Amino acid sequence: MTDVSVFGNVAKDIQTKSILEPDARTRRRNAAEARFRLWGAIAVALGVLALVGLLASIFSNGLSSFRQTYVTLDVFLDPAKLDKDGSRDPASIAKVSTFGYTPLIEKALAEAMAAKGISVDGMNAKAASELISKEAPASLRNHVIANPSEIGETVSFDLLASGRIDGYYKGRVTMESAALDRNTSPEQLQLAERLKEAGILTTRFNWDFFTAPDASDTRPEASGLGVAILGSAYMMLIVLVLSLPLGVAASIYLEEFAPQNRFTDLIEVNIANLAAVPSIVFGILGLAVFINFAGLPQSAPIVGGLVLTLMTLPTIIIATRAALKAVPPSIRDAALGVGASKMQSIFHHVLPLAMPGILTGTIIGLAQALGETAPLLLIGMVAFVREYPAGPPDGFFDPASALPVQVYNWTQRGDPAFVERASGAIIVLLVFLILMNLIAIILRRRFERRW
Amino acid sequence: MSVGLIFLVVLVLAAAGYFVGRARALSLSAQSGRKLHSLPSYYGQTVALFIAVPAFFVLIAWLFIQPIVIDSRVNGMVPDSVIPDGGARSLVISDVRRIANGLDAVLSRDAIDESALTDGSIDFSSIRGRLADVGVALVGDVPTEVFEAAKAYRQGAKFGNMMMTVAVLLVAIAFGAWSYTWIRPDMRARNISETFIKALLIASSTVAILTTAGIVGSLVFETINFFKMYPASDFFFSTVWNPQFRGGSDLGIWPLLWGTLYISLIALLVAVPIGLMIAIYLAEYASKAVRSVAKPMIEVLAGIPTIVYGLFALITVGPFLRDYFAQPMGLGSSSSSVLTAGLVMGIMIIPFVSSLSDDIINAVPQSLRDGSYGLGATQSETIKKVILPAALPGVVGAILLAASRAIGETMIVVLGAGAAAKLDLNPFEAMTTVTVKIVSQLTGDTEFASPETLVAFALGLTLFVITLGLNVVALYIVRKYREQYE
Predict the structure, then answer these.
(1) A56 part of a folded domain
(2) ipTM (interface predicted TM)
(3) CB nearest B280 (choices: A40, A58, A419)
């Protein structure tokens, strides 16, 4: 009887119209379907938009750091000031501090302005010379110490313009903001415009950004990534040399030899957990074990490299094991069948076939390590380092910086010009990452075999 | 000899051992007319392994032990009287180390003879200025005992270094010679070298265990030190975080934990709906072309370093939220806020949710879908009523993994969340997290053996336990779920 009554209820809803004409309920359900689908599409669009927004923000802020404003001046290297005893001895020239060079630049600028007939009301020679970076006398001094024979001659130099003038040509500083700024004035900007018309002041590609060391808070225009790139390269070298053999060896054991027992399980659980430990905890480990216990120096690439090695190992082990697993057992069986030992079958046959997969995993692990910041902060890589580390292996123990840490460092500075520098450094970092990932993709495409 | 040079010498010795061992095996077999048990190269390999591996172990062990031995000896030379009031012994010892390193630099720069140090013709007053020249600036008066200790430290390091060179090379040569004399045509060289290599493989796979042990050991050890100086009950139950340079700090974990959880919650509120919908759309609706473009783009989000997100939060998202939401609504004027960090972190963990959920949705058997369609359900009804319930455990696992990632994240919150530790509900306020405080307490200038620094280890341990717990639960759920359909 129940069946009949149920049937009767349903029967009331049964369509009496054509099936091609949907009723209200079907329309509702179809609308819900379309809505749900739309939500999905919106979510995907949001995800892609987030990526685009992120990259657009970084690039719009950072691309200008690859251009830099320079003032080209003919500086007379006055022997009366730079080399009083006339010996041309680098040691005695070095006694003249950077303050001794400032008047030379001031004079050269005044002469250049006079020659081109440029003058701006309310600007004396001293105020005009503030157009030029405080770093300029130091670089002039370094040049003279390196080339003492040029003393007494007039040499043409490209001197850095000050950060505010540089910012004016990148749209960061305007006449209005300059009027409120203690470090520059609208008059200076007008003068800069006149100098640009006269061809003395130019904005061009900034090679120094890749080679120069960091600079102090007040000289953003002179800061560069040289030490950071070198430090990162050293650390990547250490990570590669240590984690690739260790990771491959561990994977071979776990995948090919390890018996099913407690010890193997312990290792497996450990590797799975290490992959999920927050990176900052590795920094604490580095500080406690490598610096406080083993007494390795702070801020040194060796400590950073060791910490990043431990972080990268799980990635490499997981990738290597997947690659080893992908080699079909028939290869091993064939090798064993013609009399190879187990070790021979693995090292002569399985490992070479798994190599593309292993290298791909290694490069991806290295790319992760390259972008890692938090553990490096704890082992003292935030220190202000202006000296280039020595060549390897001694340089591994010298203080250095790293690309992502340099970004962090610059975000902590007051001058807004450092935001541009930090974004520029990120672009450099991203370019390295893209290159590494491209290599990994090409390796995979070209050498990966499907069995 | 420097470590690098010793390393190279041992490598060269090993390479030489390979050829010598191989040649000896061949000549012995030619003399006696007996066939070799293994291929000739295995005899060389055995000798090379015996030269290199024990020597490297000695080298590494020596590098670890020498500083400890020297430190303890120098420690004995520094009497308690020279330790300043309120200062720590470890600071004096680190001064000793710095002076010792500075002396090296002074000697090499000024070309002073080694003997000048020992015969006392250079005393501390004359060398102080020179130390400053090479970048070792000393604060306050350094007593002569410390200077003497620094000289002893230097001597000890020098002597230790020499002994290390001798010991490593001796071990290399002794083991090499021993394995060399061992070579006979019937020696099972392949088996020996393979056993050796297998031992090395096992040793490398224990690195994972050692790392975990190192992490747990260092965290627990320093946390115990911390709790000796600061009561554990205050740490776990106090709601005030207020570290002071001169002691008397309040170091309650709750404000930090609250900030961490609040930011992670916002991140999950952003990432879970978006990530789940992305996974559903890509798995169920998207055409092949859309999927092949959108999936990698979403996954790129996971490959971008967190410092990039941090900068994004600092220069774009933070000011945007402040100018268009917080200030017009009168909710705050800080560009670093819980919402800034939460939003950006949400973007970062979208791919963690979406990729794993995508895999899990794909793992739901097609028969379930077909059954649902056969009953007349629309696609969205099938997803909501059949696929999601079936995939729920796996999705929960994915969300837990994302949560653990969010809780342990550092750079986004360092740059985006601010440094003020407070218990507040306003998402436009700057708050701080456990990870931010680990960074700030360990990178500050406070001395190491103070509760203000050591608290970082207790925070680290808390963080480690929370993320590990979340991960274990998540992996358990995901694994259990996978078994269901296999």
Answers:
(1) no
(2) 0.88
(3) A40
